[in-house]
Amino acid sequence: MNWYVLVAALLASSVEFVEALTIVLAVGTVEGWRPAMRGTLLAVLALAVLTAILGVGVLHYVPINILRGIIGVLLLLFGVKWLRKALLRFSGKKALHDETEAYQKELGKLQANKGNTVAAQATAFNGVFLEGLEVVVIVLTMGSAAHAYPSAILGSAVGLVLVLMAGIILRAPLAKVPENVMKFVVGTMLTSFGSFWAGESLGVRWPGQDLSILLLIAAYLAASWLIVSSIKRRDVATA
Amino acid sequence: MKWLKEVYDLFVDDPKLSILALSALTMAFVIARAGAKGTAGLAIFLVVAGSLWYSTSRN
Known about the structure:
The complex is a heterodimer of chains A (about 240) and B (about 60). With about 240 residues, chain A is an all-alpha fold. Chain A has eight helices and no strands. Chain A is globular. Chains A and B meet through α3, α5, α7 and α8 of A and α1, α2 and α3 of B.
């Protein structure tokens, strides 16, 4: 079991599932559960087909060193995108993501279009497909680069079960999930994995091999703390 | 072409940051090729962290 991959996949996919659940709940509340579930199932089916095609193609036809290079680059880009957003949120430059607010916004849009079940189904499909696409990217990239598909799939599956259970019990958007902190942690982890694998395929010799991933995570966390404090200090000085 | 934009948005938020992250890898490749394989990793970290600082502080 690769614990780095499992934890990263669990956290990242939970964040995405929470966002998808908010959209499905909004559709279900306004137009009923049938179009919400139909859109969700179609999206899950489309994602499964995409994963199977990409997964088989990637594993069978691309040599591991090239694969790690490509995946490292994608993970690095994906990771810095998440980390940048998290840094802006924690330094007060961007509003923190609020699931209740997102739910109300979605509800408003759907109520303006009430009675159109096709549009509602499409909303559920788009929400689940786009959020799920990020989960697919994480599972495929981390699973194949670290040769740890079971860990990546297990991490995502646990995330899905936890979010689904909470959603069924609460029947409300999961506003209490510390989504912003989770995004920050995942952004740091993805940036670290990306740096490690892309670097390795480019000929970088990492001290302590896989242990360097932990060093990179600690270093990126420290750098993030410095960035957030420097932005906050500057804002106080200019206020 | 809408799907292409969706895929692009999946990985890129700030194009300058993405270009800087790619530059970090190019730099590491050149350094590793020059023989300093241990230092190349440090270059990746420093350039990526610096790029994040640049991207967030000019926002």
